[in-house]
Amino acid sequence: MKNRRTFxxxxxxxxxxxGCKSQRNTGVKFQQQERAPQNLVGVSKALDNILKSIEKxxxxxxxxxxxxxxxxxxxxxxxEGTSTSSETDKKNKENQxxxxxxxxxxxxNIDEILLxxxxxxxxxxxxxxxxxxxxEVEGMKKxxxxxxxxxxxxxxxxxxxxxxxxxxxxxxxxxxxSMSNLGPMYDLYRDEIKGEISRIKYAAHQCYLRASxxxxxxxxxxxxxxxxxxxxxxxxxxxxxxxxxxxxxxVLSIGDMRSSLKENSIKLFRIKKDIIIKNLxxxxx
Length: 285
Prior knowledge:
Layout: H1 2-32, H2 38-62, H3 65-81, H4 87-142, H5 146-164, H6 168-186, H7 194-212, H8 216-224, H9 227-237, H10 241-260, H11 266-283
């Protein structure tokens, strides 16, 4: 009888301990699965898409369109000054007409690219405002302070004005600031790394912008400041080997951009910035 009672108490104790352990494990899993809502993620995506389109606009504007137009004016003047009807002049005129056709085609292609990309920018901007509005109520409930919300809205409004004015420098500036100001929103969700990613994207875009203006020391400071966010992400990622490799690529690409600052090449700065952004996008998949 005594043995039975001892056995019964032992059995109940085992069941109780297993149940408690199961509850603790369930709680841990729940915390690890907490992620930012789609509306917030959508705002980030819209900002990313806008800056990608702006880079295409920037490249289109860098095409030798100005040189082409100057050549066209010179050709027209040359054509007007031609007074002889020699065979050489005739051939020159034919060459000029051919070049004019090529010039018109190139200019037309550039105009099409600009029109298409600006349309995309305007559409994504509307998406950013709409998704932010959808997230606001949920964000306030989660703990987003009015100060944080106002700070993001201010940068988003400046960003909108820059787009309206088609000011590329200000678009990069306020667009990346908007990204950075989303960071505290993501911090409210356990194990979410998009906050750190947003801040590193800000650093990459600002580094490119400032390096292009010759502000190299400021660019270095921005890149050096990303180490803090890298360390935070390492802690959150834990033993996920896929994420660890992706994060290592981010670190290496930041180092590459740091090295590129020794050169006076806007094209090089842009390439290195694009690699950082691409690696960050791979990391957040």
